[in-house]
Amino acid sequence: MYVSVVCDFNSDNSKKIVDSILMQYGFNRCQDGLYEINSIMENSISRLKLEIDRHCDSYDKIRIYQYPMEHKLVISFLHEKRWKKKIVQDKSIVKG
């Protein structure tokens, strides 16, 4: 599964810690605040979300884009210290 993480941090402390966490999981830094990995297991994403949540404050903005997950694009985002999810589904794939 391809995963991209987009971060907008409120503090340098959060930025340094989350950057370190993402590097431990094997993500590559593409740009400031943008990370990606071509292959990662779904259970690793769950652990990653927990670790990120522990080191962010309510002003940090994190979005995780996962594709494919059962032919869907899943967008997880941290909102007020809670992970929320949007699912984008290609109807032509589901029907076909």
How large, in whole angstroms, is the Cα Rg?
14 Å
Q: Which outline best applies?
A: globular
Number of domains: 1
- Which sequence of strands runs across the widest sheet? 2-3-1-4-5-6
CATH class: Alpha Beta
Oligomer: single chain
Q: What share of the residues does DSSP label as strand, in percent?
A: 35-45%
Which architecture does the CATH hierarchy give at level 2? 2-Layer Sandwich
CATH topology: Alpha-Beta Plaits
Largest sheet: 6 strands, antiparallel
SS element count, helices: 3
Low-confidence segments, given as residue ranges, are none
- List the secondary-structure elements in sequence, H or E: EHEEHEEEH
**Overall helicity:** 25-40%
**How does the helix and strand content classify structurally?**
alpha+beta
Mean pLDDT: 91
| End-to-end CA span | 21 Å
How many strand elements? 6
Short descriptors:
single chain; 96 residues; alpha+beta; Alpha-Beta Plaits; six-stranded antiparallel β-sheet; 3 helices; 6 strands; globular
Summarize the structure.
With 96 residues, the protein is of the alpha+beta class.
